[in-house]
Design brief:
The protein is an alpha/beta fold. It has a single domain (2-242), classed as 3-Layer(aba) Sandwich (Rossmann fold), CATH 3.40.50.300. The chain is built from nine helices and four strands; from the N terminus they run αβαββαααβαααα. The chain has a four-stranded parallel beta sheet with strand order 2-1-3-4, with helices on both faces. Helix 2 crosses helix 8. The longest helix is centred in the N-terminal third of the chain and has 18 residues, at 2-19. The protein starts with a helix and ends with a helix.
Length: 246
């Protein structure tokens, strides 16, 4: 059943993409799954809505999730300029993009962990790894997705954000995003947003926080030497471009 879903999901997504109206002042937060998209939206929500704790439970109330099919046809109701979640590979319709990327090995581990915990799939890691490397999961291969966004010329406002940099210094990266969005916020406001997002993650507020494993280097818990070899054969050039090491 899971594999049948993988076959039809791109067609369903493409259909909803065509239905979506894109406004010239839209900003898209784009990433391959499990690369920090939800975390960045949590940081932004904490910064822009500092007094509203309830909003952290459902980020889609302020930042449209184009994959939320119950709300998809209501995207036009959101206050502009909209900041919209996306996992799509390069999409020329998007007028401005914040692109989050992460070590592909950690992406693989976290994606597998996600499927086990939230989708109820019984993949063992090796089975999922084979699917991941062949692009038989949602959104194709990690390397193709990253290459489609990061290694092409952009005529649009475009801000790349490295997941590990958010992990190391959230305030610095949130400042970059605030400046990109032309939000006039103080350093104190940014630090409070970071502290608030940390409290959210640690207290497991919301559906996602604290459940799927994050951080860096988790791939070492499950990758065999052969997994590492295969991964580097297929995605090594992309990893090297991004500055990741074996």
């Amino acid at each position: 059943m899971g594999r049948i879903r993988f076959l039809f999901e791109p067609l369903i997504r493409a259909y909803f993409q065509k239905l979506m109206i894109v406004y010239p002042d839209d900003v898209y937060i784009v990433s391959y799954p499990r690369s920090g998209n939800r975390w960045m939206r949590l940081l932004l929500t904490s910064m822009l809505y500092p007094e509203d704790d309830g909003i952290l439970n459902d980020l889609s109330t302020v930042f449209p999730d184009q994959y939320d099919r119950k709300r998809h046809l209501l995207l036009w109701r959101y206050q502009r300029p909209r900041i919209i979640k996306s996992h799509e590979p390069f999409t020329p319709r998007y007028p401005a993009v914040i692109y989050l990327y992460r070590d592909g090995r950690d992406v693989c581990f976290s994606y597998w962990d996600w499927y086990r915990r939230f989708e109820g799939r019984t993949f063992d890691f090796q089975e999922f790894f084979d699917m991941f490397m062949k692009g038989r999961v949602s959104y194709g291969t990690w390397s193709d997705h990253v290459e489609s966004w990061l290694f092409r010329s952009h005529a649009i406002p475009f801000l790349p954000i490295k997941y590990e940099d958010v992990f190391a210094n959230s305030a610095e990266q949130l400042r970059r995003v605030a400046d990109f969005l032309k939000k006039d916020v103080s350093d104190d406001c940014i630090q409070k947003a970071v502290d608030r997002s940390v409290e959210d993650r640690e207290s497991k507020v919301g559906f996602y926080a604290g459940k799927a494993k994050g951080g860096s280097g988790k791939w070492k818990d499950v990758f065999t030497a052969d997994n590492e070899r295969v991964f580097w054969e297929h995605a090594g050039q992309t990893m090297e471009k991004l500055g990741y090491k074996k």
